[in-house]
Design a protein that fits this description.
By secondary structure, the chain is mainly α. 61% of the residues lie in helices and 6% in strands. The strands form two sheets. A four-stranded antiparallel sheet has the order 3-4-6-5, sandwiched between helices. The chain has a two-stranded antiparallel sheet with strand order 1-2.
């Protein structure tokens, strides 16, 4: 079940990836910026059809080869489900959950039936053409079921959503804590999808993120508190790790720490920072999760409402500054949290003698500051070379059943876990290795992971 939920979490990242473009178009087209109505309408069109986009994106993400017929099946399934349910009860609204369900069903059916052989007289409908057909049939049955039972589930979801939103400081604090705590097993995307796209409603828009861009003055409470952490707290943690490193090793790890710290500040991508200490000290990571929860509470209590299309980095902070409530207060909060992070991290690292970058007992650094070739051909060759080395460290081609990736990590299924050489993986630059259970394996690489994963798939 854990592995299955992780697959769904990974699949959710594809449709989520379109949100920055939608938010950019919607925001830049507003009257207080470029005042281009058709640009704003183009961005709003994506938000208005999020459920359909999730159906298509999740289906592709779950399909073993990402084929377009899975996407078609996801769209077909979504239309059959929503129109079928509406014929039974037009007050039902599964919103993004309907899209996710349709995408999951389509993706799983694609993996099962994409190479099915039919009798010769039905041969035209065999193979991948069969997938949208069987998906439509399955969703007809589900539409009939959900048309009668979803009203009860909808009431429960509404009640949970209203409780979390109505819980105020407690609700945002618990969410912030769980958001960080679930990152190691990759399930934070699942809870994010509920908070950002499902809970709450404003003029037809559901979820904190969607409602924020729709102009809901009460939206943004589940996003604002992340800005102080991602723009200030985690970069300060990188600074603390730098000063906690052995003097003779600071130069070697400076490029890596300052690079991932700046990435967190600018874009809000935090996993490269978090995986530098996550496995070294669970205590340190729990402290980070608790601080994230408190940051959301502080932002809520200071009446700050802010949101993002991608993540809580400087780009989204500045882009959406004009539609936020009291966004300037986040800078003050961020500076306070930067001081807290620096003091706590430096103290815990030095007192507990944690082996963060630059504090290793040996003289070997795990590819802390590799030289990056700028030529495109060299870059491609570098990724191909890394892919080959990662494959060898993972036990070879024959040991890899599936190769997937999200923003920063390889998500693999291996045949024999004992053949995986974690020491070599870390020497190649991996920031961490996670074994969720069974034959599932995750290798945290960073934002270059997509290029390495593509090269690994080509070499299979």
């Amino acid at each position: 079940m854990l592995a299955f939920l992780q697959r769904i979490g990974r699949a959710l990242m594809l449709p989520v990836a379109v949100l920055p473009a939608a938010a950019l178009l919607l925001r830049l087209g507003q009257e207080d910026l470029l005042n281009i109505p058709f640009m704003a309408a183009a961005g709003d069109a994506i938000f208005a059809n999020l459920a359909l986009i999730f159906a298509i994106g999740v289906a592709i993400g779950l399909a073993k080869d990402g084929h377009g017929s899975a996407a078609l099946a996801g769209a077909v399934g979504y239309f059959v489900l929503t129109y079928g349910m509406a014929a039974i009860n037009d007050e039902l609204n599964m919103s993004v959950l309907g899209g996710i369900l349709s995408g999951v069903v389509a993706g799983l059916l694609y993996n099962r039936y994409h190479n099915i052989k039919l009798p010769e007289w039905l041969g035209f409908f065999g193979g991948r053409r069969f997938v949208p057909i069987v998906t439509a049939g399955t969703m007809v049955v589900l539409a009939g079921i959900f048309g009668f039972v979803w009203v009860y589930a909808q009431n429960v979801i509404d009640a949970i959503g209203q409780w979390i939103i109505g819980a105020g400081a407690l609700g945002v604090g618990v969410y912030g804590f769980l958001n960080r705590l679930l990152i190691p097993i990759g399930l934070h995307h699942v809870i994010n999808s509920l908070i950002w796209f499902v809970f709450g409603e404003y003029n037809g828009a559901t979820g904190d993120l969607h409602r924020f861009f729709a102009g809901d003055p009460d939206a943004g409470i589940f996003m604002a508190g992340f800005f102080p952490i991602m723009m200030f707290g985690l970069p300060a943690a990188c600074l603390a790790m730098y000063f906690a490193a052995k003097r003779e090793k600071r130069k070697a790890i400076a490029g890596m720490l300052f690079g991932i710290g700046f990435t967190s500040f600018l874009t809000g991508i935090t996993e490269p920072v978090e995986f530098t200490f996550m496995f070294l000290s669970p205590l340190l990571y729990v402290v980070h999760a608790l601080l994230t929860g408190t940051a959301l509470v502080v932002a809520f209590m200071l009446d700050v409402r802010h949101g993002f299309g991608f993540s809580a980095g400087a780009i989204d902070y500045l882009l959406n500054f004009g539609i936020a409530t009291n966004p300037g207060r986040l800078i003050v909060i961020g500076l306070v949290y930067a001081a807290i992070y620096f003091v706590l991290f430096y103290t815990l690292i030095t007192k507990l003698d944690l082996k963060t970058p630059g504090r290793e007992d040996d003289d070997t650094l795990a590819n802390a500051n590799p030289e990056q070739p700028q030529d495109e051909a060299n870059q491609r060759g570098r990724f191909e070379d890394l892919a080959q080395k990662y494959t060898q460290a993972l036990g070879g081609k024959d040991n890899l059943e599936t190769i997937d990736n999200c923003i920063t990590r390889l998500r693999l299924k291996v045949k024999d876990m004992s053949k995986v050489d974690e020491a070599v993986l870390k020497r190649l630059g991996a920031k961490g290795v996670i074994k969720p259970g069974g034959n599932s394996l995750q290798v945290i690489i960073g934002t270059d992971v997509e290029f390495i994963a593509d090269a690994m798939r080509k070499q299979q």
